[in-house]
Amino acid sequence: MKTRTAACAALLALTAALTACSTSSDTKADPAACKAAMRKQFQDAIAAGDTATPSTRPPQCNGVDAKTLQKFAADLMTDQLGKSVESAFPDDTETSNITADCRAWIEKELEDSSDSIDATAGYEACGYMSKDELDKAIDTVTNDLMSATPSP
Q1: How many domains does the chain have?
Q2: Which of 19, 35, 131, 133 has the maximal Cβ count within 10 Å?
């Protein structure tokens, strides 16, 4: 929650910086340095949280046009929003819900050369999972087995 508040405050600070006029028209623009300076300001504002104060246009942004500055601000906000969303939700590859019995059954079925599946044993071992969870568990165990198998 504090990250969201800080991110909004930082975006407002960046927006304020964007509306400031460039101090010199003969300064050679360095967009990469400008974006890096904006990123630092944004990260500092997020770290400051509720105590963040509005910032001004970084000197590295002198000579960079307003449209480019707006794009940089949007890019920085999108990156931060993505990081916030990723940290708010559990990783889909999380395997903590695969019990040892379920993993053993999946491994046995994957390594089994028969054309059939022992559904009774599978239900006993993995019956607590939905179809989607079981599909993810099978994919996870398959990937684990493939990565543990040395290549010829």
Answers
A1: 2
A2: 35
